[in-house]
């Protein structure tokens, strides 16, 4: 990976990358690192001075953990990192909900209209969608129930909404209208996006299978509902998902056979059935290339002026061989991913640490930032003839793996993919 090309090419800066669409949905197979990458992308964007909201759907602790917080995310949300905190080694700041309070709401959003809009974080319904300060990361959990409660409150049903909820109306509605839960959540995300309270909204999506249902519900409902609020909501969501200037997906994968297969399939499925634009693929867990692994341990020890006994040498030789094999397998899968999915790759190393906390998050965010810098700058003049939108650029790979999509499949201007003819 020489930096030579980067100095010649117009390279992408992190702010440009992060603002190519307001909503970035981080998707992929379970366990590949979606939550970790959501947190790291948020860290990177906040370090570049942007205001960031991470949306978590399942109430898992991964995102707050990565920022060093024990907070349980709720609908109103918490500040995970205040402006400037990116420079410190984090971990000591409390899970403050007050930090954002210094910034008064920039605009009245539909959702906050029923609230006084004073303090971020404690409202139990009709959450306060306050402007997020630059350089700050907030996170919140959005559930269909909360979103419905807020929707009802905003439509003059605040009094009865809680009773309706406790009577389990969401289940009745969800049973009658499949996909309504997804529409409620995505509708809320759309409303956050429109309100402009954050420069970047990162959605930590469910694992691939569920994510496909989650993201295709809106178009399904659009076909099914003839009119009324459900159709309106579905139409708004479809509009969001299919506009690359508003919403894109970053797929996360591991450089292994099954995850790569799944990422490739997911990419085409997202394109075909959702019509959503794809940003670069994040290849997580790459083993840093160690050189000299082929040298026998005894020989390396002798050169270093130490002596090791046979069992140690044997163990080292086997460990070296194992690592070499893994490196080769990963390189093969990264190459295949590049050929089968002509999108840029952002590669993140495997971290040999027990947990991912603030220090590791900084590390990953810095690696991502470097990888982003190596991406070519998107064309500042959209080409009307090409019908191109200014989506997250995906034309070239970083490093060796995916450079040039050649004749196999194509990458359109918006980073969309077409399957090569088979
Ligand atoms: N680059 C990495 N190096 C080492 N461990 C990682 C890395 N990325 C993620 N992990 C760990 O892998 C596990 C799964 O990651 P997570 O982000 O929760 O995946 P997902 O959200 O896709 O299920 C977690 O324990 C996380 O700490
Ligand atoms: Mg997760």
Description:
With 422 residues, this protein is α/β, with parallel strands linked by helices. It has one domain (4-290, 344-418): Rossmann fold (3-Layer(aba) Sandwich). The chain is built from 13 helices and eleven strands. The chain has helices at 4-8, 14-18, 34-47, 62-66, 144-166, 169-176, 180-195, 208-224, 228-241, 257-274, 297-303, 310-340, 358-373; strands spanning 23-28, 52-56, 78-81, 137-141, 200-207, 247-253, 277-278, 281-286, 345-349, 410-411, 417-418. The strands form two sheets. Strands 1, 2, 3, 4, 5, 6, 7, 8 and 9 form a nine-stranded mixed sheet that branches. A hairpin with a 5-residue loop joins strand 10 (410-411) and strand 11 (417-418). The longest helix is centred in the last third of the chain and has 31 residues, at 310-340. The chain is elongated. Residues 1-7, 88-127 and 382-414 have low confidence and may be disordered. Magnesium ion binds at residues 34-35, 60, 62, 204.
């Amino acid at each position: 990976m020489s930096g030579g090309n980067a100095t010649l090419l117009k390279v992408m800066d992190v702010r440009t990358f992060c603002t190519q669409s307001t909503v970035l949905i981080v998707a992929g197979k379970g366990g590949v690192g979606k939550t970790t990458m959501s947190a790291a992308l948020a860290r990177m964007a906040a370090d570049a001075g942007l205001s960031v909201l991470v949306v978590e759907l399942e109430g898992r602790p991964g995102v707050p953990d990565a920022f060093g917080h024990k907070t349980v995310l709720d609908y109103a949300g918490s500040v995970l990192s205040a402006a400037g905190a990116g420079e410190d080694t984090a971990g000591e700041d409390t899970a403050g909900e007050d930090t954002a309070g210094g910034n008064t709401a920039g605009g009245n959003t539909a959702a906050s209209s029923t609230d006084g809009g004073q303090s971020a974080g404690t409202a139990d319904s009709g959450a306060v969608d306050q402007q997020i300060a630059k350089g700050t990361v907030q996170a919140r959990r959005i559930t269909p129930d909360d979103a419905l409660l807020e929707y009802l409150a905003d439509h003059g049903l605040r009094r009865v909404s809680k009773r309706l909820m406790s009577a389990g109306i969401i289940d009745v509605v969800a049973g009658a209208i499949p996909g309504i839960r997804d529409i409620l959540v995505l509708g809320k995300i759309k409303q956050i996006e429109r309100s402009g309270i954050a420069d970047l909204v990162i959605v930590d999506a469910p694992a691939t299978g569920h994510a496909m249902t989650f993201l295709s519900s809106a178009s399904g409902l659009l076909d099914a509902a003839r009119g009324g609020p459900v159709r309106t909501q579905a139409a708004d969501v479809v509009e969001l998902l299919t506009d690359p200037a508003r919403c894109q997906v970053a797929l996360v994968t591991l450089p292994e056979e099954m995850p790569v297969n799944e990422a490739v399939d997911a990419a085409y499925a997202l394109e075909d059935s959702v019509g959503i634009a794809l940003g670069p693929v994040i290849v997580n867990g790459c083993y840093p290339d160690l050189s000299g692994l082929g040298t026998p341990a005894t020989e390396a020890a002798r050169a270093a002026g130490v002596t090791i006994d046979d069992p140690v040498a044997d163990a080292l030789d086997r460990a070296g061989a194992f690592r070499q094999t893994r490196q080769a397998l990963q390189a093969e899968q990264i190459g295949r991913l590049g050929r089968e999915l002509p999108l840029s790759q952002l590669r993140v190393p495997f971290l040999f640490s027990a947990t991912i906390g603030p220090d590791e998050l900084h590390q990953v965010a810095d690696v991502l930032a470097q990888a982003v810098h190596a991406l070519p700058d998107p064309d500042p003049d959209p080409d009307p003839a090409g019908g191109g939108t200014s989506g997250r650029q995906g034309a070239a790979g970083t490093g060796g793996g995916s450079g040039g999509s050649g004749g196999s499949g194509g990458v359109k201007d918006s980073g969309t993919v077409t399957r090569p003819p088979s």
